[in-house]
Amino acid sequence: MARRLANKARSKAAPARAQSQRGKGKTEGRDRTAQQRLTALERERDALRAELARAEERLGLLEKNQADVRDRIAWALDSLHNILQGKG
């Protein structure tokens, strides 16, 4: 019930002059807040792009290292296989 009364109190119309004065301050505040949020989001986007570039570079290095290790293991297995065939 208290909520209904509060909603009714808020729904009353204010004089046009008071509404226009109140609206200007809110609009300016909203614009400033929206601009600040936009700036923060752009900074976050740029940071995430830089982090993604670093992660992709790191991934490339890890894939190259994995390929090198795989080649070394294959070489070692071939060498062992050749040794075993030579003894038999």
Structure notes:
The protein is mainly α. The protein is 93% helix and 0% strand. The model has no long low-confidence stretch (mean pLDDT 84).
Brief overview:
With 88 residues, the protein is mostly helical. Helix content is 93%, strand content 0%.
Features:
single chain, 88 residues, mainly alpha
For the sheet with most strands, the description reads: none
Kindly report the average pLDDT value: 84
Query: What is the 3D shape?
Result: rod-shaped
Give the strand content: under 5%
Class computed from helices, strands and strand pairing: mainly alpha
Number of domains: 1
Which stretches of 5+ consecutive residues score pLDDT under 50?
A: none
Overall radius of gyration: 34 Å
**Element-level helix/strand string:** HH
Q: Give the N-to-C terminal Cα separation.
A: 96 Å
Number of strands: 0
Helix content percent band: over 70%
Number of helices: 2
How is the secondary structure organized here?
Layout: H1 2-11, H2 16-87
